[in-house]
Amino acid sequence: MEPSRSRVCICYLISTFLIGYFIYILVSSNLENSRKLGRLREEVDEIAHVVLHTAPGQGDTKHLNEIVDGILKKRLAGIWDDLYTMKKQLRLTECTGRTTAAAHTMTADGEGGALMAMPARVNYAAEELGAKVQDVNAEPLDGGNLVRSMLGLQYSANPPINMLKPGMEPGNCFAFKRAKAVVTIKLAQAIFVESFELEHLCRGNAPNNDTTSAPKEFEVYGITAASWKESKIGDFIYTNQHPPAQNYAVKSECKFLYMRFKFKSNHGHPEYTCIYRIAVYGRSQK
């Protein structure tokens, strides 16, 4: 009985220590966030005070709201950067050989550059930041019918929103028949796009090690908030010979609120294509 009691005591002590440590981490994180919010509140109050006393002709509510909104957007962008960096670090363990912190950078003609370190940045196509799938033109896997289309359930098995989520489990993708589809994504906010990322399953995580359902040739267009006119960004190729997360460097002269992806082929699967993840990076100001 004594050895059994000893094991129980040891397990109890270890559990108590782990719970205490977890509570300490939560409290520390909460205090740090409170300090940051306090500093943000002080800065906003100070700027509002300066505006009211130095620019009396512009101290109306609308003008102050514009100033405060601008400050908050800049501050929140920094907070999003920190949160996204933490998520990137946690996701490094999801897949052996998967490259997130270091992605293969591609050019507009689909040629790959040298493997380079990609700094963690805000993904403006993330659902958690407010991005959404604006429009989809693709043939559903189950063929669909009028009733399901009217209810918006034609893609319920593998919905398009999966492309904007971080999970990379097998089947957690947007799937459509054959290889052609047009997807329009509304970003969290209008940005100057600097790069985007397309990601498929690791070969080792795919059923039967088969990644032929990955997209291959595709076009990308940017659309501004003021107009639905397409501005072509380039033609690209996703290749199975490179890391699952492939980054494409681009240049945009104007802010795009929407990104349109036109998928034209896959890597040989005769029945369907799967789009696992799309990420878009850029800046709100040049």
From TrEMBL:
One CC-aspect GO term: meiotic nuclear membrane microtubule tethering complex
Keyword annotations of the record: Membrane, Transmembrane, Transmembrane helix
Domain of life from the UniProt record: Eukaryota
Transmembrane feature ranges: 7-27
This protein's record includes keyword Membrane: yes
Pfam family, one: Sad1_UNC
Localization annotation: Membrane
PROSITE patterns, A to Z: SUN
Any coiled-coil regions, as ranges: none
Entry's Gene Ontology molecular function annotations: protein-membrane adaptor activity
Signal peptide start-end: none
Primary location recorded for the protein, binned into one broad class: membrane
Domain spans labelled SUN: 114-285
Protein name: SUN domain-containing protein 3
UniProt organism field: Zeugodacus cucurbitae (Melon fruit fly)
Gene name as annotated: Sun3
